[in-house]
From TrEMBL:
Organism: Umboniibacter marinipuniceus
Alphabetized UniProt keyword annotations: DNA damage, DNA repair, DNA replication, Ligase, Magnesium, Manganese, Metal-binding, NAD, Zinc
UniProt cross-references to NCBIfam families, sorted A to Z: dnlj (TIGR00575), PRK07956.1 (NF005932)
Cofactor: Mg(2+); Mn(2+)
Name of protein: DNA ligase
Any single Gene Ontology cellular-component annotation: cytosol
Length: 674
């Protein structure tokens, strides 16, 4: 082959054959013929590297491993779906959508809920330029190099007139045949096999070496358009799927249109009966209102669309034996019973323990040691003991009893008859409480000490190098480098992070102390009211109960905490170590400007996210609540506002727009600077 035009033609031919094989499951040539054409392509590119096209099949594997994944901001949030676990909940979804759409009958697009990993693909002028994980819905990880190795993802869209920009969303899975072959190979090579196809898909996508990902049998199924740069004449979601299919993207052929609720239920039941025969794992059916105009009318709630729901299949269950019940100690001394089980494979994972929450749960189940128990993975996630049965032909064992002393430190266990939770009385004497408290102290919402993680704290507590919060600020370089797997660079970086954390807001300082039932919001109210940690320490019950968010129970916890001399000494030592808690306020902000107002935010905001809006309002003294009640002063609602907006209208609470909120904050800011 002597010219570039012939080379481009060969690239197009190979991409056509690849699409027919991987996307349409319709091979056009024998594997040997494809391999010969591919080898010809590689030889040309070796001779003429300047010709290499970005959509060449040879470009599916990256040149070298990455150092890490970079964050990616999604063009539009990748929302999660609300779940329905019964026919009744599905019927409720249908009725809500019908009511909001003002239509008696709705057309639903019904799709398999593939059990894989959500993925965003971005094409520019028809070429794949980015692949990203869902992440937290707003920001994901750039895994483009790995995405390019997935054979049924086109590097170039099959169209002569592609949109300037197109974001496609879908699911990456590992089919059963590929999963089985991969695990068999792993066993032969004495490497660890994957537990289930979903974990295999997730682990494969997050390989730093794209060459490793290229060896994994992954497949991608598109299920929606996230964003498109040009106007379209689509009227239904199904038309969007057909459009994606025409571009060479794989769309699940099992998708159906149901024109009634009964048809939607029938589709679910049929799929549930047949899903063990499928070539891949699914964990439910996704129902979407098909009409795009009705989707916009029905809108969104929080981080999920109102017009879609995932009808989950029943939680998977299995029988096993209860071997023992052990007790774990948490940050506030709460003692939680944990069931130790004969390992059992259920819902795609091996389960060997399950939380029992508290002693009341043991009584409710009528649990005895040695019982045959039913393990259920509720929503296919959290292992639970659903029922307990006497072992066949055997006498039941003892009923698990609450220990009288802490299993970690031997301090007395206390239990108030009015509460289900039992607690260790040891406080920081208990290493389990100390570890959990220090993890909380260093966490992102508290002192935010980067690099001060669970394993490090565990080591330092075991060495008795951390007896309390003040010891964090007296750690030395020599202490740190003496730790297992902790080098000079890590030690220096951690010490800098510890030093930087000394400049902390008073609200974070209070929250970091770990006072029972004092969360972020209450800590902020306390910081705003007292403005100084010593004033808070000296506060009496009457003063505390006069503060928003502080009732008799929380006031009691605060008084108990500060009445303990060990806690007062620790605070003094933190201050002596250079910690300088300061009241949060933006330069000169009038922290009383909105005092007395209880505000609720709902819907999607565009100029700022809801968390930022919340912080801005709180800095001016407002209380920002999570739900609407008769005490709510006003509601600020963005697009997609749902039940909170309806509740506000029902109660006659004033409702304002995001523009009103921006105007309010701008006015307050201008008053500060005048």
């Amino acid at each position: 082959m002597s010219n570039k035009a012939q080379y481009i033609s060969l690239v197009e031919r190979l991409n056509q054959l690849s699409s027919a094989y991987y996307t349409q499951d319709m091979p056009l040539v024998a594997d040997q013929e494809y391999d010969q054409l591919y080898q010809e392509l590689v030889e040309i590119e070796q001779q003429q590297p300047q010709w290499i096209a970005p959509d060449s099949p040879s470009q599916r594997v990256g040149d070298k491993p990455l150092d890490g994944f970079q964050p990616v901001s999604h063009l539009k949030p990748m929302l999660s779906l609300n779940n329905a676990f019964s026919d009744e909940e599905l019927a409720d979804f249908y009725r809500r959508c019908s009511s909001l759409a003002a239509k008696d009958e709705l057309e639903l697009c019904c799709e398999y809920k593939l059990d894989g990993v959500a993925l965003s693909l971005v094409y520019e002028h028809g070429l794949l330029v980015q692949g990203a994980t869902r992440g937290d819905g707003t920001t994901g990880e750039n895994i483009t190099s790995n995405v390019r190795t997935i054979r049924n993802i086109p590097l170039k869209l099959l169209t002569n007139n592609p949109p300037a920009r197109l974001e496609v969303r879908g699911e990456v899975i590992m089919p059963h045949t590929g999963f089985k072959a991969f695990n068999e190979r792993a066993v032969r090579n004495n490497t660890k096999p994957f537990v289930n196809p979903r974990n295999a898909a997730a682990g494969s996508l997050r390989q730093l070496d794209p060459a490793i990902t290229s060896e994994r049998p992954l497949a991608f199924y598109a299920y929606s358009i996230g964003d498109i740069s040009v106007g379209t004449d689509f009227t239904t979601h199904y038309e969007q799927l057909e459009f994606l299919s025409s571009l060479g993207l794989t769309v699940n052929s099992t998708t159906r249109i149901c024109t009634s609720l009964q048809a939607a239920v029938d589709y679910y039941e049929q799929t549930d009966r047949e899903r063990t025969l499928l070539a891949y794992d699914i964990d439910g059916i996704v129902y979407k209102v098909n009409d795009l105009a009705l989707q916009q009318k029905i809108g969104f709630v929080a981080r999920a669309p109102r017009w879609a729901v995932a009808r989950k299949f029943p939680a998977q269950e299995a029988f096993t034996t209860l071997i023992d019940v052990e007790f774990q100690v948490g940050r506030t001394g709460a003692i939680t019973p944990v069931a130790r089980l004969e390992p059992v494979f259920v819902g795609g994972v091996t389960v060997s323990n399950a939380t029992l929450h508290n002693m009341d749960e043991i009584s409710r189940l009528g649990l005895h040691l040695g019982d045959r128990v039913v393990i259920r993975r509720a929503g296919d996630v959290i292992p639970q003991i659903a029922a307990a049965l006497a072992p066949e032909g055997k006498k039941r064992g003892a009923i698990p009893a609450l220990p009288t002393t802490c299993p970690v430190c031997d301090s007395l266990v206390e239990r108030d008859d009015n509460f289900a939770v039992a607690r260790c009385s040891g406080g920081v004497v208990c290493s389990a409480q100390r570890k959990a408290s220090l993890i909380h102290f260093a966490s992102r919402k508290a002192f935010d000490i980067d690099g001060f993680g669970d394993k490090l704290i565990d080591q330092l507590v075991n060495l008795n190098a951390l007896k309390g919060f003040p010891d964090v600020f007296s750690l030395s370089f020599d202490q740190l480098i003496a730790l297992d797997r902790f080098g000079e660079k890590s030690a220096s970086k951690l010490l800098l992070a510890i030093e930087a954390s000394k400049s902390v807001s008073l609200a974070r300082f209070i929250y970091a102390l770990g006072i029972r039932e004092v969360g972020e919001a209450t800590a902020l109210e306390l910081a705003r009211y007292f403005g100084d940690i010593h004033r808070l320490v000296a506060a009496n019950r009457e003063t505390l109960e006069s503060i928003d968010d502080v009732g008799p129970i929380v006031a009691g916890h605060i008084l108990t905490y500060f009445s303990d001399e060990k806690h007062r000494i620790a605070i003094d030592q933190l201050l002596a170590a250079g910690v300088e808690p300061q009241v949060e306020s933006a330069s000169g902000v009038d922290a009383e400007a909105l005092k007395g107002l209880t505000i609720v935010l709902t819907g999607s905001f565009t100029a700022m996210n809801r968390n930022e809006a919340k912080q801005r309002l709180q800095s001016y003294g407002a209380k920002v609540a999570g739900s609407v009640s008769a005490k709510t002063s006003r509601v600020y609602a963005g697009p997609g506002a749902g039940s909170k907006l309806a509740k506000a209208e029902q109660l006659g609470v004033e409702v304002f727009s995001e523009d009103d909120l921006i105007e309010l904050l701008a006015t307050l800011d201008s008053e500060v600077t005048e």
